Amino acid sequence: MGIAGEMGELARIEISERDEVVVAHISGEIDLANVALVRRRLMDGIPNQATGLIADLSGASHLDSSGVHLLFELARALERRQQRLCVVAPPDALGTRVLYITGFHRIVPVTGTLEEAVKVLGAESSAAQA
């Protein structure tokens, strides 16, 4: 499934599936002006049969506190649906530092690459089935 959605002028989200995981490539800015649209787009893009969501922030140019709050909310919502969240935030990406400052990385796995995130969610899925 390759759906692209515009979130105003600030953010772009492209959703695809990889194995049983939904991957949302997020580029541009995530802030108070568009966070509600981003939230709706992400939640609408995750089918119930998916094991989880990878939010790839490697293309995000800005992530303010409302964007970080969205990630915390998303993790809780997915947990209620028995799904997992993993965030791709390369060390040199603008939003990575704030994820560590807020302690987000202690709640949700944060990886540097998409391949690492797929492995993390695959390993968690296998452990849950055992």
Find the structural class using helix and strand composition. Answer: alpha/beta
Total number of beta strands: 6
CATH class descriptor: Alpha Beta
Measured on Cα atoms, how large is the radius of gyration?
A: 13 Å
Helix content: 40-55%
The CATH architecture classification is: 2-Layer Sandwich
Unreliable segments of 5+ consecutive residues? 1-8
What's the helix count? Answer: 5
Order of helices and strands: EEEHEHEHHEH
Anisotropy-based shape: globular
Could you provide a short overview of the structure?
The protein is an alpha/beta fold and 130 residues long. The protein has five helices and six strands, in the order βββαβαβααβα.
Describe the structure.
The longest helix has 16 residues, at about 65-80. It is built from 5 helices and 6 strands. It has one domain (about 5-130): STAS domain (Transcription Regulator spoIIAA, 2-Layer Sandwich), CATH 3.30.750. The chain has a 6-stranded mixed sheet with strand order 1-2-3-4-5-6, sandwiched between helices. It has helices at about 35-45, 65-80, 95-100, 105, 115-130, and strands spanning about 5, 10-20, 20-30, 50-65, 85-90, 110. The protein is globular, with a radius of gyration of 13 Å. It is an alpha/beta fold and about 130 residues long. Helices cover about 40% and strands about 30% of the residues. α1 links the parallel β3 and β4 (about 50-65). The termini are far apart.
